[in-house]
Specification:
Rossmann fold, about 35% helix, alpha/beta, disordered N terminus
Length: about 180
């Protein structure tokens, strides 16, 4: 799938390195831009991750969010990414951190990812991708599941909480109870 780069993402596009620009040329909807470690820790803290959680990172890149969730909180984690090189890197990072038994990395489009097991979903995607993903999150995730996004919101879905870490905005949504039909 392809998504237009939204106006809010234009500053990101202007700052892209040649590697990031190549990600778009290779058919990826979102360039690989790793979240700083302090931001990763802020995302997990904002989500209230605990050992009983399953953290799913959509567009996991090098796996740092899933690996950090396993190291710091003892959580299980699954990362999805389309780039086979990022998946290899994520697996190597999990092995190096000795949390490979708590982590799984899958080469798959995030729109095809199995997200039902998540207690926490993490995102660092572009606004158009978040918007496209929002109906799936609301329909498939259990009520009470926490969704955290680095830098980009979900349009008209107002966050339950937002904070700043190192000048970067982090958003938290909690999947609401479904209304009886």
């Amino acid at each position: 799938m392809r998504f237009p780069v939204a106006a809010a993402a234009v500053p990101l596009a202007l700052m892209m390195s040649p590697v990031m620009a190549q990600d778009f040329e290779n058919g990826l909807d979102v360039p690989y831009v790793p979240s700083p470690n302090e931001v990763v820790e802020g995302m997990l803290k904002l989500a209230g991750v605990k050992a009983t959680d399953t953290v799913i990172d959509l567009g996991c890149g090098d796996g740092r969010i899933v690996v950090t969730a396993a190291i710091k909180y003892g959580a299980r984690g699954i990362g999805y990414d389309l780039d086979p090189e990022r998946i290899k890197e994520a697996q190597a990072n999990a092995a190096k951190a000795r949390v490979a038994n708590k982590t799984t990395f899958v080469e798959k489009n995030l729109f095809d990812a199995d997200i039902k097991a998540a207690n926490v979903v993490t995102l660092y995607l572009l606004p158009g991708v978040n918007e496209k993903l929002k109906p799936r999150l609301l329909a498939e995730l259990k009520p009470g599941t926490r969704v955290v996004s680095h830098s980009f919101d979900m349009g008209d879905w107002k966050p339950d909480k937002q904070i700043e870490v190192q000048g970067r905005r982090l958003y938290l949504w909690v999947i609401p109870e479904r209304k009886a039909r």
